[in-house]
Amino acid sequence: MSGAVVMPARRRVAWGKRAGLVIGGVIVGAVLLVAILAPWITPHDPFVQNLDNRLSVPFWMEGAKPGHLLGTDGLGRDYLSRLIYGARISMLIGLLTVVTSGLIGTTLGVLGGFFGGKVDDAVLFAITCRLAIPVVLVALAVVGLLGSSLTLVILVLGLLLWDRFAVVARSTTMQVRNLDYVSAAWAAGLSTPAILLKEILPNIASHLAVVATLEMALAILLEAALSFLGLGVPPPLPSWGLMIAEGKDYMFFSPWVIFIPGVALFILVFGINLLGDGLRDLLGAGDTR
Amino acid sequence: MSTATTMVRPQETAATPAIEVRNLRRTFRIKGGLLGKDREVVAVDDVSFSVPTGGVLGVVGESGCGKSTLARVILNLLPPTSGEVLVEGRRLSALDRRARARLIQPIFQDPFSSLNPRRRIKDIVAMPLVAQGNIPARQVNDRVAEMLTRVGLSAEQGERFPAQLSGGQRQRVAIARALVLRPRIVICDEPTSALDVSVQAQILNLLAELRRELNLTYLFISHNLAVVEHVASEVAVMYLGRIVERAEADALFRAPRHPYTRALLASVLTPEPGLGVPDVGLGDTLPDPANIPPGCRFHPRCPVAEPRCAVQVPQAVATTDGAAECLLLEGAAQP
Amino acid sequence: MSAPLLDIQGLRVEFGDTAAVRGASFTVSRGETHCVVGESGCGKSVSALAVMNLLARGARRSADRLVFAGQDLLALPERRMAELRGDRMAMIFQEPMTSLNPAYTVGSQMAEVYTRHRGGSRRAALDRAAGLLAKVGITAPGMRLGQFPHQLSGGLRQRVMIAMALMCDPELLIADEPTTALDVTVQAQILRLLAELQRDLGLAILLITHDLGIVARIAQRVSVMYAGEVVESAPTAALFADPSHPYTRGLLACVPVPGKVKREEALGSIPGVVPRIQPGFEGCAFRDRCAHAAPVCAGPVPRQRGEGAHEFLCRLPPGWTATERAA
Known about the structure:
- By secondary structure, chain A is an all-alpha fold.
- Helix content of chain A is 75%, strand content 0%.
- Chain A has a single domain (2-47, 55-287), classed as MetI-like fold.
- Chain B is an alpha/beta fold.
- Chain B has one domain: P-loop containing nucleotide triphosphate hydrolases (Rossmann fold, 3-Layer(aba) Sandwich).
- Helices cover 30% and strands 21% of the residues of chain B.
- An eight-stranded mixed sheet of chain B has the order 6-7-8-3-9-10-12-11, sandwiched between helices. In chain B, strands 2-1-4-5 form a four-stranded antiparallel sheet.
- By secondary structure, chain C is of the alpha/beta class.
- Chain C has a domain at 6-88 and 203-326: P-loop containing nucleotide triphosphate hydrolases (Rossmann fold), CATH 3.40.50.300.
- Chain C is globular, with a radius of gyration of 21 Å.
- Chains in contact: A-B, A-C, B-C.
- Chains B and C meet through helix 8, helix 9 and helix 11 of B and helix 7, helix 8, helix 9, helix 10 and helix 11 of C.
- Chain C: Belongs to the ABC transporter superfamily.
- Chain C: One of its GO terms (cellular component) is plasma membrane.
- Chain C: One of its GO terms (biological process) is peptide transport.
- Chain C: Residues 6-252 form the ABC transporter domain.
């Protein structure tokens, strides 16, 4: 009966939130598509320099050159092409980091939450240790020590950003573990790994998906920050953070060189967060009876 | 502690009981906070009983009396602190999970939390068969279809998810899942408490039919005495972890011996107008499993308690059809 | 007879395209306990919330008549309604934990109710609270006032809820499944308490329940709801002696009664499920599950009047049960 009382209100709220979900989904989907199709849709090679055509202005300014929709950078490389390839780097780093950290965090969290006791103590200790590590400083130190590369950035971020996965996986597992369907699965003779994979994981997946979006946004921003400091993706790879860094010398005369990748970064992170919020409301509502 | 609750009756000695529980005890530790000491909560305290094949033992008691913990220990969902559970003469703790699943299955109270919301009904029902690991997929499908039909669900409903079914239909799914392996014993933990009256009747009828058809043994846990009276052949009354009275159902309802049983029976509100609400005379002190009173554990609430009840621990006394633990019964006041 | 304290005629509540209550009518007089009984989804709780104007947003309420102590509740602005709630009409819910604020002590919550409606000092309000806690059978009320809701057992919390509802001497108490979450022994105690309070204070009680046992034991009058309608309404004894609507009869047959229903014998049951009722639904909502259904049941259903104040909503004539028994 209470369901009947609450339902109409909930439906209305869900519709408002669904707009965010759709917008976020469209943004992230579009960026992903662009990233995948990069070699086929870029008008120019993003690596080819043309010193005769440096800092050509984008289309909305006077003196824009046809063929360079967003102008060129300080080395005369087509800015639109670099932006598109930069989306590749951002999405790649975002996704791979989330996969790595998601695997680590979810495994730890589920094990801790399910088994409790000593296992849980160990997991909690690991989480506490991880939270005591300053991510940016460690990332800077490691990259500074070993030299920058795409793989290293992904590895470092992946190994550092699993804490939220672990916390969420642990607490949701604890809730689900006590539900009768897990007891029923146990009584039905299912093995522990089967219970974890078939009964627990699918029921905490929605919460993890929300964490994944947040972590992805964070990883993308961190990569941009690292690249900006020259410790992320090595040039000439076109990362958005690196583009901002490279553009900072020209920012007073050609502000659009930082403006364009900055806005791209903002839109992508904004979209991912919208998607995450929308997902949380959608799946959260679906979880309740 | 002597265990007179083990009442082996002549006809039972011949055949092995379907389920036998010996001196079962289960305690929990409750963390005492920053400065407080850890407390020990005795949820099940030295419980022994047996149920013959085809019998239904009703277990009644108030919340916190340990009846659900008892169910979970018997199902091996919780290990006992001490004591053992024998199913058809075999120690449950020595069986592997597959063998255990073939013998004993649960039906839980809340049909909303007892079904995995991310699985289809047919997959939920198939789970015990799949867990056996050696049943061909074809056979699994056949048996699931057969079982769904038997509990009154259509094949089309098998394709749905739990959220698309009503409470009664979900409980039918839970029954199908519990019976698909043809177990010998089913532990029903408040199987109808979350259901509407008319649906409760349907589920009780279904459980009764299935029991006769498959010669099942039930342990039927409920707080509803009217329901227990309807389904059980024997009844055990639990209070703060102990079985304080156990008797044949007819005898228990006709002539309850323990004051607690009497109070429970008195508080049943049958739909008979004009009788008013009974005065159960139990007072306000509610049982706290973390703080079990000395002497007879029921004495603080007992309407007929005497001073000695606060000191002396009652021993079980055999009654005509069972046993009860009360000092006021003749022969209970042994030193 | 004087006018009833609460007079509800033709109450309707709709949520989007679902009709939760469809023209329900009942009255509660001073000193009377009126039970509304039905299964989940029948609209009994929604009716209670509608009287209190506590429906969820998005619900549409309308009625032919909704009068409390001479005041037309339909015309009353929400501000005035809020003054009535907790003062002249109070409500207790199934799960007291959801209606008690976990962050405040029992005492401050009870005092707050009183000072909000009646003013006066907090000291006086606390004294009154302590007195009421004692009245509802709570020992050491002074200590309980300083406790938080989570420190109390379920039975105690429900007593606190009742005491809190009584803070301003309400004339009407609406109790929605007040004992469903409680143990049977505690349930009996709480119901006795309600009956005693009613006798002492002349309260009118509207009690919502699914339990026919509770109805039989404490109600003076019963309304059986099904699919948003009151399908049968009668003085308690008359209803149990001669249940006239097929649904009421079915419901009574479902309840195991110790000593009356034989063990192993199948209980009565009602086939099928409650239909989903949309606005504009025609005919008897029970016809798909009814053994006495006829083609006319798809049309308008007459409200039959039996002896006394016994009414039921069915095509069958009053006294059909007697002729059936005779046949």
